[in-house]
Design a protein that fits this description.
Helices cover 76% and strands 1% of the residues. It has 455 residues and is an all-alpha fold.
């Protein structure tokens, strides 16, 4: 098992090398500059669209704008925001959060382009139903000769959409917060029981398809973000005297890299810190990875640019708000200076330190909502990938593998799980970014027409 663990770690390090960073972040910066910050100037309009001001029930698609964003957010606002940020700080110190923010701002531009394309070039599955996503906009936008690249994305998506990280960290949280303090001996047996319970809950929801998933998560997502926000504000209030000093430390440590404990990149710790922030940012908000295109591509709209504006809000909510809340909770309580790098338990320690007796249970409630909502959305992504590869009539078979993988996630080590998903996310980013950069001029042409009409 240790050899497999090392192989997966080496695989993740290999694909997350300099070429991918240039493609993901360099490509995102290019899109940001190429758009001349155009979509950012219409953030107010995107909120109007989200509130349903321009909804038309006659438009093609399956779900409304709010449900599309909720479905996409339910997969991104998850354990990446709680455990992923904890891992980033434990390895990289406060400065890792600055590079997380940079990845989010760049990611907003990337999401605008990728999700505009997801609606602009929707395709049809083998049952004749309209579908959106990277694999469809590659084939419909670039032509049939590009189908191998679309298939590459879909194959990587089959693994990338597995829920193993969320399940792993949820299991750890239940063991650490609920069972162990109450005298329950934890181990493989308790983890397996938790996995079985999650399997049953997930199966009930995902059998209902996208409609049930979107309705469930559109209720869960706003509630879970609000509860988490209130909890962290309480922590910051308790430690109000150090909030400003730690917030400024995020900026100073971003370039000094004094607290970075990971491997250097190109001979320097700063390079390693930047890569860590970008990697955890991509894991958190999935900008440039392409998963969200499958949710936004199902949105009920005839205006591709409108959906791009909605999708752009994702990294802002996910990384600039939720990840920052987690980071500040870990920093102001001082738990980041301990040797515990095991993800969610670091965040749990912060909640327990600032809000004794109930803090851990508040966090557990948030984790339950975050993780369970992610379980529902990722199953949808995986079935869409299999539909593209093997026909819509076979998509149900993915759910069988999906629910079995919940048991694997509950009983396997964090490092193996994190490296596995990181690696396949990286593979998904390659076709997503290449196709998006090629078709970026088409998005800008459509955006100019749309904004002129809006004015």
């Amino acid at each position: 098992m240790s050899q497999i663990d090392q192989f997966i770690a080496d695989f993740a390090s290999l694909v997350w090398g300099i070429p991918l960073v240039i493609l993901l972040i360099g490509g995102g910066i290019y899109l940001l500059i190429y758009s001349r910050f155009l979509p950012f100037r219409y953030l107010g309009h995107s909120v109007e669209v989200l509130r349903g001001k321009y909804n038309n029930p006659e438009d093609p698609g399956d779900i409304n704008h709010f449900q599309a964003l909720s479905t996409a957010l339910s997969s991104t606002v998850g354990m990446g925001n709680i455990a992923g940020v904890a891992v980033a700080i434990a390895v990289g110190g406060p400065g890792a959060i600055f590079w997380l923010w940079i990845s989010a701002i760049v990611g907003m531009a990337t999401k605008f382009f990728t999700n505009t394309l997801a609606v602009m070039y929707r395709g049809k599955d083998s049952e004749g139903k309209i579908q959106g996503g990277v694999m469809y906009f590659i084939v419909e936008g670039l032509g049939k000769k590009w189908k191998p690249m679309a298939a590459f994305f879909a194959v990587a998506g089959l693994v990338g959409a597995l829920p193993v990280f969320n399940v792993n960290q949820l299991t750890q949280a239940i063991n650490y917060i609920l069972l162990e303090p109450n005298g329950v001996q934890t181990g493989f047996g308790t983890s397996l029981v938790i996995g079985i319970m999650l399997t049953i809950i997930t199966t009930i929801v995902i059998i209902g398809g996208l409609d049930r998933i979107s309705k469930t998560v559109s209720k869960l997502v706003p509630a879970m973000v609000l509860l988490y926000f209130v909890s962290v504000v309480a922590i910051l209030f308790v430690h109000y005297d150090v909030v400003l000093s730690y917030f400024s430390m995020i900026f100073t440590d971003a370039f000094a890299a004094e607290n970075y404990k990971g491997d250097p990149l190109l001979g320097g710790v700063l390079g390693g810190l930047i890569l860590l922030g970008i990697r955890r940012g991509a894991f958190s908000n999935e900008a440039g990875i392409g998963t969200a295109t499958m949710a936004h591509g199902a949105s009920k709209t005839s205006e591709p640019v409108r959906e791009g504006l909605i999708a752009m809000l994702g990294p802002a909510i996910d990384t600039l708000v939720v990840c920052t809340l987690t980071a500040m909770a870990i920093l102001v309580t001082g738990v980041w200076q301990t040797e515990d790098v095991n993800g969610v338990s670091l965040t749990a320690a912060a909640f327990d330190e600032a809000i004794p007796y109930v803090g851990n249970y508040l966090l557990l409630l948030c984790i339950l909502a975050f993780s369970v909502s992610s379980l529902f959305s990722y199953s949808y992504y995986g079935t869409k990938c299999l539909s593209f590869l093997a026909g819509a009539e076979n998509k149900k078979y993915y759910n069988y593998i999906y629910v079995l993988s919940i048991l694997v996630g509950a009983t396997t080590s964090l490092s193996f799980i994190l490296n596995l998903i990181d690696g396949f996310f990286a593979l998904m980013a390659i076709p997503t970014m290449i196709a998006t950069l090629i078709m970026a001029p088409r998005v800008m042409k459509a955006a100019k027409v749309y904004f002129e009409t809006y004015k």
